[in-house]
Amino acid sequence: MTLNTSRRGFLKGAAAATAVLLVGTRPDGAIAAANAENTALNPFVKINADGRVTAIIKHFEKGQGPATGLSTLIAEELGLSMDQIDYEFAPSNPQVYNNLLFGPFQGTGGSTAMANSFVQYRNAGAAAREMLIQAAAQEWGVASTDLSIENGVIQGAGKSASLGDFVAAAAQIEAPAEPRLKDPSEFRLIGNPDVRRLDSEIKGNGKAIYAMDLHLPNQMIAMIARSPQKGGTVTGFDDTGSKDVKGFIRAATLPTGAGVVVYAENTWAAMQARDALDVSWDLSAAETRSSDEIRDEILAALEAEPEYNVTKADQAATLSAIDDAATVVERTFYFPLLAHAPMEPLNCTIEATADGGIVLHDGSQMPTGPHMALAQIFQLPMEKIQINTLLAGGSFGRRATPDADYQVEAALAFALTDRSRPVKLVWSREDDLRSGYYRPAFGHKVRVGLDSDGHILGWDHRIAGQSIMKGTAFEAMMVHDGVDHSSVEGVSDTPYQIPGMFVGLTDTKKATSTLWWRSVGHTHTAYAMEVMMDLAAEAAGVDPVEYRLRHLTGGKDQERLAGVLKLAAEKASWGAAPDGRTQGIAVHKSFGSYAAEVVEISGNAEDGVKIEKVTCAVDCGLAVNPDVVKAQMEGGIGYGIGHVMRDQITLTGGEVDQYNFPDYEPLRIGDIGAIDVHVVPSAEAPTGVGEPGTPPSAPALANAVARASTDLILSDLPMTESNVSFV
Amino acid sequence: MTITLKLNGKTHDVEAEPGTPLLWVIRDELKLTGTKFGCGVASCGACTVHLNGEPVRSCQTYVEDVEDAEITTIEGIDNPIAKAVQQAWMELDVVQCGYCQSGQVMSAVGLLSENPKPSAEEIDEYMYGNACRCATYQRIRAGIQRASEIMEA
Lengths: 727, 153
Known about the structure:
By secondary structure, chain A is of the alpha+beta class. Helices cover 28% and strands 24% of the residues of chain A. In chain A, helix 3 links the parallel strand 4 (53-57) and strand 5. Chain B is α+β, with helices and mostly antiparallel strands. Helices cover 37% and strands 15% of the residues of chain B. Chain B has helices spanning 22-29, 80-91, 101-114, 120-126, 137-152, and strands at residues 2-7, 10-15, 48-51, 54-57, 70-72. Chain B is globular. Chains A and B meet through helix 6, helix 8, helix 19 and strand 32 of A and helix 1, helix 2, helix 3, helix 4 and helix 5 of B.
């Protein structure tokens, strides 16, 4: 280590040996640096004395790539190769590690991880670079401008040294307020398609640790017997049968009455003891409706006057224009409840610390939610609650509930113990499908009036369904004038230039807990819009791509949508499908990104559809990691198509009918052919990729199936409900 | 009861009741967590291990039935086929959330062990039982084909 005497005097013994440079922005936005002991900072970059750099990742990793992406931003600005950077997940701290688009709230969602971190993480890397260079310049007596960092080596003026040699010195330097960020022409890692994921190796060799894999010494496993119908409460239980299970510890009713907790020494014992438990329920206030009744209610609401005029449009003018139209195309769509079913069933572990605090170990999508909930449950200040974020085996929105559902269950289960043993709450797949939170059921009724030349005169779009945001902490932010924006996004703000458009919304009663599901409102709005665009094009006698392009003029949104539409069409050889193949197309903007997809099928509804190929074009601004962008599109397409083919959650007498994967069949490898993704080169700021691949996939498939089949009306989803078979 | 298992080349005496799925012995008793719990009904493949070299679903394999078998988990698989698969998985960045991937790798090794050059259709057929909610299927298909090339080289 090369330190001058005065600094050597300042750093003492072990502190110097383990010197760590932490760089980040203060809560007020000012860049700051200090050694590891200073916990008032907001660190994104940690550099150990041995020169090893660790990126502190404020977003959780459910496969969508922020661990790699945010590390790349720091490595780029700091002058590292990707094998010189490690990552770790940030602790829960809503002031320091907040999502800049969410306010003082730490969380991952809305496909915002890269969008809100792009400048923040580059600044942190760039500030670290400048401080290390300044420290070296002082030591060597040369100008900072003569030095650079390449591949983790500080070099220039005939000298070179490891970053570790200057960590301690750099920690004494005031961080630059506005470090110079690289010009995009200087990027070596950002935008480089050869940058690989940092988590590939551990996920391919079984070493990756998910929350489910945590084994704390002396831990108990907790599983919960929940009401078979939502809203039921426990009146009593008999655990005689459970007592015969070796490893069963005890059972206790949750203070909310929502279930009975079974504690056991291991997971298998917990499962068996729960099966053997006999619980009696008060179901007088529980949900009793079937999904057919829910569907009837939604379809009836579509026929009545809408509760809200979403865009304050002139409804009478729209109706009158449609009355005068030469042709009217009309469809009613029903979208069922859907489960998220992430591969790793929900779970988390809670333990007490020696100083009276609580630690939650969780693959947490929105740490601030459970953080606040646990502070309330345990009556502790926020700083006495820590959250250890672990890898998550998927989420698709499920690990982020406004009421922190499973973390609260775990906290209540832990609070019922003497707190001497950690409690790990485990959900089974059956719990996940039956006791879960669902993409709400929605209906759309759309009437489009065309003149004799195929021009749109009026578009009457009615939406009815179960609000996600109402009744939650997000209501104030997401509901305006009674309208839950997540119920209408993708329709009310469509970039299509549609004359005479009216959008009406009616809220219907929730039968289950509703929750955002990969791409939120766009899961149904893109389908309704894009199927109607195809029907309007058909009625107008115009090619579906050409017809869409006619309505995509006049602005940047329209230009970028038209760009991906044309690119996808070109790459898919639109209009020139091989014999026996049929194509369908859809395009949609969501989460700031633009995606167009062409689905190519063989067969038809009656004989069986095979999904041969999907071609996708995406414009997500600057693609920090183009291969991760492609992977997210591939996954988003698979997620959308898998569900629209055959999945739904149904209720009978208030009880969920599906039990496990055999009743909620995941997309399988043979269900879908090649997916060919093209990323539009762009210098615009990065936008979302986790969700935008999903919305166009289902309508592109529907449009292909409708074209291949005779007299097929795809009104009810999944498609198997509208007499489509798949081979 | 005490059951003796031969797992990853070592002998382990474990305490388990008859009827206990091998999955939970591997995860909770032996603390080998690369083998995952996804469904418990042999419907997702996340718990795939090898029994005498053949992929099986450990959530529906009972501990008392495997005392004489050689059990291999993702932590213990290190033959040239496994190395080829894991190298291909990294080259192509097959994984997303990764939770199913131990099972995918174990099944892929099983496939390539009996069919070193599978066609896309043969891959689809063999891998059907391994679900991936992130839908990494196209890369799994490509990963198996790439592993096949690595094995040939």
